[in-house]
């Protein structure tokens, strides 16, 4: 499915290039966080493979907020740059919200600027949608999973996944029209909610927290968690895992996304 | 409670005036819809009573979109105008979203501009929040109703009430932290949801649709519906009613808002 999406994007890019526009994506990476470097590398590779132009600007971890804002403003003004991605998390001396608000909304391909978040909740489709929720909708649509009237439970209320995910799924349109519940750390009876979900979306950031007994038989389970767990049987001593305990969930769910393999790296 | 809020606002206005700033609210009314005229009159009266400056600009129903946008731009640029309210609904020749997007976000006291809606969902508190959801939170807080961990069911997904209401209630803060479900016309088993709600918020626009048997005993019921029903016993032949059937709900709920009397006119 991912390969099909990549092919479709490449075809759209080729069409734009034929019309004289080379889509340009610039990624800004501050500091040398290993996970961020991996993500940025993957973005760079994928956009190049799709025929886009663009570069990655690597700044030292000591970069000041003023310096980063100046870089963003330069990219805002550059007509060859159509998309700007400032990789999160940023070093402590930089306020991420200030940086996000400085990105031109029409270049904010991460969809984190308040204008784009607002358009998402209102239901307008002329903004950018944050990538994981957008990908989940795409996955559900391409898998033939009906969201209309479905009971969807989103576990997690982050600004990157939980909240935009819920906002997308409640819109009155194809890929929406679900009855959406958002659960989080303050939810009293989490199991009662997860057990009634036709579509369960786990975005909590807690390793293997959702076990098979918490899932309704036949449910569609989307696990966007990406956690590291100690595992002495591996060379590294750790392994990647999701928010769902895959081994106990796989026979209960009708469809389930593996971790790793579906999202992230 | 409303009187207390009005007094607090008047005190804040007096403080601003003492510092040389006279808060100015300008309301724009296009056409002669009777309900809109009533709302606008109430807003004008309340803001004057609180000591604010401001006027109502009344435009004919034949006003073009370009003319209305020019009025909005004049108000955007006027330093004496701090808040702009364009009364909805607008005549058919005017696209409401275009008008909303033209209002300066920092004067958009209705909180309908995408920037303000986005801040609301993100959880930032430096934007304007649409008035009914903001009022519901205020009512819950002042009534001592705990939202943290509460099961809240919002029936209705409008951009004016349902969606911003759900967004506010899921934030990680006082007056939020609820487990929120949004139900709507595509919801399969509405009664199962309404019956498990500790706090039930009805914003559907269907006269007396929520009956007492759909409410959990002891629930807090907020009815923001404002509908007109035939009633031959009245002089007008109609009466105002909410989305909740008050007579059957009042003995089941622990607290309930009456219609009319709490919201709207």
Architecture blueprint of SSEs:
The structure is a homodimer of 265-residue chains.
Chain A: H1 2-18, E1 25-30, H2 34-49, E2 56-59, H3 65-77, E3 83-86, H4 96-102, H5 114-122, H6 131-142, E4 151-155, H7 162-169, E5 179-183, H8 190-194, E6 199-202, E7 220-223, E8 227-230, E9 238-241, H9 246-249, E10 255-256
Parallel strand pairs in A: 1-2, 1-3, 4-5, 4-6, 6-7, 7-10
Antiparallel strand pairs in A: 8-9
Total helical elements of chain A: 9
Oligomer: homodimer
Order of helices and strands of chain A: HEHEHEHHHEHEHEEEEHE
Structural class of chain A: alpha/beta
CATH domain class of the largest domain in chain A? Alpha Beta
Shape call of chain A: globular
Please give the share of residues in helix of chain A.
Answer: 25-40%
Radius of gyration of chain A: 19 Å
SS strand fraction of chain A? 15-25%
The largest beta-sheet of chain A arranges its strands as: 5-4-6-7-10
| Count of distinct structural domains of chain A | 2
CATH superfamily of the largest domain in chain A: NAD(P)-binding Rossmann-like Domain
| CATH architectural grouping of the largest domain in chain A | 3-Layer(aba) Sandwich
Q: Describe the biggest sheet of chain A?
A: 5 strands, parallel
End-to-end separation of chain A in angstroms reads 16 Å
Can you give a write-up of this model?
Two copies of one chain form a homodimer. Chain A is of the alpha/beta class. The first copy, chain A, has two domains: 2-103, 3-Layer(aba) Sandwich (Rossmann fold); 127-256, 3-Layer(aba) Sandwich (Rossmann fold). Helices cover 34% and strands 16% of the residues of chain A. Chain A is built from nine helices and ten strands. The first copy, chain A, has helices spanning 2-18, 34-49, 65-77, 96-102, 114-122, 131-142, 162-169, 190-194, 246-249; strands at 25-30, 56-59, 83-86, 151-155, 179-183, 199-202, 220-223, 227-230, 238-241, 255-256. In chain A, strands 5-4-6-7-10 form a five-stranded parallel sheet. The first copy, chain A, has a three-stranded parallel sheet with strand order 2-1-3, with helices on both faces. In chain A, strands 8-9 form a two-stranded antiparallel ribbon. In chain A, helix 6 crosses helix 7 (162-169). Chain A is globular and about 50 Å long.
């Amino acid at each position: 499915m991912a390969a099909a999406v990549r092919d479709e994007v490449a075809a759209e890019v080729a069409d734009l290039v034929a019309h004289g526009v080379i889509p340009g994506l610039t990624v800004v990476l501050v500091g040398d966080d290993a996970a961020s470097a991996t993500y940025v590398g993957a973005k760079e590779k994928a956009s190049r493979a799709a025929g886009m132009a663009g570069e990655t600007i690597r700044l030292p971890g000591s970069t000041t907020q003023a310096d980063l804002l100046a870089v963003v403003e330069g990219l805002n003004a550059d007509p060859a740059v159509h998309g700007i991605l400032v990789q999160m998390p940023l070093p402590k001396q930089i306020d991420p919200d200030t940086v996000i608000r400085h990105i031109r909304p029409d270049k904010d391909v991460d969809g984190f600027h308040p204008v784009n978040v607002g358009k998402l909740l209102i239901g307008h489709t002329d903004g950018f949608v944050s990538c994981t929720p957008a990908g989940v909708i795409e996955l559900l649509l391409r898998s033939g999973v009906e969201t209309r009237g479905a009971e969807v439970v989103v576990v997690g209320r982050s600004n990157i996944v939980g909240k935009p995910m819920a906002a997308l799924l409640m819109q009155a349109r194809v890929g929406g029209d679900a009855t959406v519940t958002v659960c989080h750390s303050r939810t009293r009876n989490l199991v009662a909610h997860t057990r009634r979900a036709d579509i369960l979306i786990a975005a909590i950031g807690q390793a293997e927290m959702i076990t098979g007994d918490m899932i309704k038989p036949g449910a569609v389970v989307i696990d966007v968690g990406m956690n590291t767990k100690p595992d002495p049987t591996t060379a590294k001593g750790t392994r990647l895992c999701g928010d769902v305990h895959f081994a106990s969930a796989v026979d209960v769910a009708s469809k389930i996304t593996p971790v790793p393999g579906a999202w992230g790296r």
